[in-house]
Structure formats: C-alpha cells, structure tokens
Amino acid sequence: MRIAIDVMGGDHAPEQIVKGALDAAAEWPDTELLLVGDKAAIEPFLKDGIPSNVQLVQADDVIGPEDEPVKAVRRKKGASMVVAGQLVKDKQADAMLSAGNTGALMTTGLLVVGRMEGIERPALAFVLPTMDDVGILAMDLGANMDAKPEHLAQYAVMGSIYREKVHGIKQPRVGLLNVGTEAKKGNEMTKAAYDLLEQAPIHFIGNVESRDVLNRNCDVIISDGFAGNIMLKSLEGTAGTIFTMLKSAFGSSFLTKIAAAIMLPQLKKLKKKMDYKEHGGAPLLGLNGLVVKCHGSSDAVAVKNAVRQARIALQGNMIESISSEINGK
Q: Does residue 128 surpass a pLDDT of 70?
C-alpha cells in the first residue's frame, strides 16, 4: 500500500512530520510512504538517507492555517496538501495524511479526491478517550457546522462500519448526542435524525449525553459539527485544566512532591489515556479515498500512529465497505 503524507502541514512541520514518517517506514517496511512537500525543506531531516520505502514528491506551495480553504485549494494547485490529494485521486496513493488546515483538507477531499457516491457530506471522525481505553468514535467534530437529519444518518452508518473494520468492534452501539436521553428531546434536527437512525442498518441505542462520554456510553456518537466541536473542545480544555491543577497541587510543598513521585507512574498512564497522539488522526469518511486529518500540533508519535491507523483501514477495505453499505452494492 502507498500512503501520501503532507509534510508541510501542521505546527511542527516539516521536522516532526518527516520524523514520524521515517519511524513508520522503519516499523512497516511493506508500506510505501510518499513525502509530499518542498524537497529542500525535507532533505535536512534525512541525514541518514532515504529508506527504500520512502519517496519524495515535490510540492512548491503550502496552504497555511490563515488561508481561506476553498480559495486556497483552487488557487494553490501546487500546495503539498492538494498534491497529496491528487495522488489519491489518480490512484498513485491509497491514502493521504495531513496535519494542516482542517477546512482546506475538507475542501481537498471534496474537490480533489472526490465524494463517495451516495454520500451528501463527508464527516470528520475522531476517537475520544474513555476510562476503559476503548474510546468513542465521534462524528462529526467540525467538518460540517450545519447538518441535516439525513447527514447524521449517513454519519452513523459510516461510523459504525469504521468502528467495526478498523477497531474490530462487532455491532458497535451508536448514540445520538443530545441534551437528554429521552426519545423526544432536542431540537427539530435531532428529533428528525432520531427517527432516521432507528431505521438505519446500525445498532442504535438512542440519545446520549456528553457528560457520560468518558465512561463510553456508546461506541459511536453522532452529532452535527457545531455541537461535536464544542464537546471536543470542552473535553480537551477540561483535561488540560485538570493536569495543570494537579501539577500545581503536587508542587505546592515538600510532602506533596513526595506524593507526586509515588504517583508518577499512574499520572503518566492517565496523561497517556487522554493524549490525542495515541489515536493518530481523524479520517474524513465519505470520500472516494482515505483522507486522514492529523491534529494540528501532531508530533512524530502522532504521525506514526496516523500511518498505523491508515494501514488498518486500508487492510480492512473500509472505503469499499462504506460504499457497498451506502449504495447497496
């Protein structure tokens, strides 16, 4: 399999992206990695040479975080993200990864890679950490701020297939993010979506609340991008604040420092449990090819894990499975 990596996108590009790609290349020699970007910027991080399963693909431009997504994708044809998308479109790569501008990656997926037949809107899927380490697949977390009930029903089908094919969960439980668990709760969109989800070929368990997410109240949680992104940012902010408070508390006196030293192994496990880098990236489901969005501040560990995630999805024929289920083929 061949995976294209936009090495110019992200807060720590290109150094950490290249390093993660090289680590992945060493871990999985059967996977060919195409590093897409400015070769002059990449080569300083290849001092030990280029592995046999790594190729450099020149891209003369970059889409930055401040660029307007649609204009940037249309005007910057030579941008690393767009070039990587074109490799997937042309079947020269089986998947692409990028830690760059989320809106631009969504646009690249739609305008370059192409939307899957039968899918109205692709959705960003992300694994939220849970106390049992299994995680919850959340869709959508920001790709589409406005959604229709029909979109949420498609998210549910795609998410259910992804959870089964990539994470090995049989008959994953699908829940609809809402303000209460009662069937008639919510706004008009969620009420209409509830009815559609009951008819969908999934294991729908009804409405779920965000306060129970960390305890894995379902395996796939469905929402529009607006509500989903608020939930995600709230969880990230809460986790960050808790760790800051713990650090302050444990450093407040000699005795608390001793306590911190004793609890350090468990604290490290807790931090790892809540770390986005362990999950690698979020796929944009509903496209004709596999497109994975890495966190903007991804380091080498996150990039390597994103490659692992892409490999599993490709090995499980995830794109073909979603297309078959959506289109009944």
A: yes
Listed by start position, the domains of the chain span 1-119+286-316, 123-276
Architecture of domain 123-276: 3-Layer(aba) Sandwich (3.40)
In the chain the first and final C-alpha atoms are separated, in Å, by 24
The total of other beta-carbon atoms located within 10 Å of residue 254's CB is 7
Two domains, one topology: 1-119+286-316 and 123-276: yes
Count CB neighbours of 159 within 10 A.
26
235 and 189 in contact (C-beta within 8 Å)?
A: no
pLDDT tens, residue by residue, 231-271:
988 888 888 888 888 888 888 888 888 888 888 887 777 66
Report which secondary-structure segment, H or E, holds 293.
Answer: strand 290-294
Q: Give dist(CA 25, CA 4) in Å, integer.
A: 12
* pLDDT, tens only, 33-61: 999 999 999 999 998 899 999 999 999 99
Q: Is residue 26 scored above 80 in pLDDT? A: yes
Q: Are 250 and 173 in contact (CB under 8 A)?
A: no
Q: Average of pLDDT values for 9-14?
A: 94
Return the exposure string of 179-205: e unless at least 16 CB atoms fall within 10 Å of the residue's CB, then b.
eeeeeebbeebbbbbbebbeebebbbb
- CATH class entry, domain 1-119+286-316: alpha beta
Q: Is a pLDDT exceeding 70 seen at residue 83?
A: yes
Q: How large is the C-alpha radius of gyration of the chain?
A: 20
DSSP string, 75-115: H-TTBHHHHHHHHHHTTS-SEEEE-S-HHHHHHHIIIII-B
